[in-house]
Structure formats: structure tokens, C-alpha cells
Amino acid sequence: MKKIFPSWNAQPTSSAPSRSGKVGSGGKGLGKGGFKRHRKIVRDSIQGITKGDIRRLARRGGVKRISGDIYDTVRGAMSDRLRT
Fold it and tell me: H-helix or E-strand containing 47?
């Protein structure tokens, strides 16, 4: 049999090391359910339009100063416009 792997590697790459414990239980418990570190927040998709996005659009339109309560108004107007 020919030696096809480098001499510094004592084992051929095809032989996997033996595992102790459960077979195939690698990783850190991902995909098993149970405890989740980060929980997905269920929210209206219009809230994905952030304050910075609205400010950026207003700056492009030439607005210099933006009132604090305008963000919800803009989100409402955008959702109405997108529904029609």
C-alpha cells in the first residue's frame, strides 16, 4: 500500500478518531430546542424601518430638523402607501 498522506501525519485522513459518549453529539447543543440565548422578537414589520432610516430619507428630502413624534407618523404613512 502506498503512503498518500504526509509523513508528519501519523494517521491517514480517512480514519476518524473514536468518540467517547454519545455518537454524533457534536456542537454546543444547537438545534436541540430548549433554552435559547437570543429570542426572536415578534413585531410588526413596519418597525423594521428604523429611526435612522426615516432621518436619512428626510435629509435626502431637504429636512433640517425632525420632531420626535414624526417617526410613528411616517411609519403609518409608509404602511398606508405600501398597502395601496
Answer: none
Q: Is 55 exposed, middle or buried (0-12, 13-18, 19+ CB in 10 A)?
A: middle
By C-alpha distance, which of 42, 46, 44, 43 is closest to 79? 46
Per-residue pLDDT reduced to its tens digit, 42-81: 667 888 899 999 999 999 999 999 999 999 999 999 999 9
CA distance 73 to 79: 10
Residue 61 main-chain phi, psi, to 5 deg: -85, 0
d(CA 60, CA 41): 31
Per-residue pLDDT reduced to its tens digit, 24-38: 555 565 566 666 777
First to last CA, the chain: 73
* Block residue for cell numbers 429611526: 51
Q: How far apart are CA 16 and CA 13, in angstroms?
A: 7
